[in-house]
Amino acid sequence: MKNLRLILTIVLVLSVVTIAEVSGLRSQFTIESLKSIFAQYGVWSWIVYILLFTLGNLIQIPGWIFLAACILAIGKLQGFILTLIAAIISAVVGFFIIRFLGKDAFRKIPYQWVQKILSKMDQYPIRTNIILRLVFQTVPPVNYTLALSGVAFKDYFLGAIIGLPIPIMIYALFIEQITKRLI
After folding, report:
1. Res 108: pLDDT
2. Residue 145 contacts by C-beta under 8 Å, 6 or more apart in sequence?
3. Which DSSP letter does residue 43 get?
């Protein structure tokens, strides 16, 4: 079967997310619980935050929750810097896990429209990644799609470090107002 790797990767990702949901792990990722990291772990809080951001990204927790907690706990500038670092590390970890599992599985999909999209991405890999980051930031399916597309890691990484700062900065500037309305 041509797409066995892709199917197995999707099944594995869905299984991990389902287990995280059913076990209650996903519900532990709240703004309040994430804010408490900075009081609980002191000098280690940045490392704990990055690890939790990476885990959260793998189990489909939206990045804005982390950003909100971080900014509310340590301020806009430090929150922006820490979240940017965590988002890039998380994107890299997700890329390598999915690339290891699925390789370039999208290249084996026989549909012409998929191959057309991939050929356009091959022409402009960094620009495509930057645009996706500007719109979707660290949304895990974007990370997974890019990893499975066969895009070179160098292009993926450059697109992430160029494309992530602007949306994270915009969120950082307005997250306090947004969270006050939501909470």
Report:
1. 85
2. 106
3. G
The token duo for 133 is 């980051």
User: What separation, in Å, do the N-terminal and C-terminal C-alpha atoms of the chain show?
Assistant: 48
CA 119, CA 113: separation in Å to the nearest integer? 10
Provide the whole-model pTM.
Answer: 0.89
Owner of token pair 């199917």: 7
DSSP states of 5-39: HHHHHHHHHHHHHHHHHHTTTGGG--HHHHHHHHH
Residue 176 has pLDDT above 70, yes or no: yes
Of all residues in the chain, what percent carry a pLDDT higher than 70? Answer: 97
Question: For the chain, what are the domain ranges?
Answer: 4-182
Best CA proximity match to 53, nearest among 19, 96, 84, 14:
84
Which structure tokens are listed for 105? Answer: 């599985």
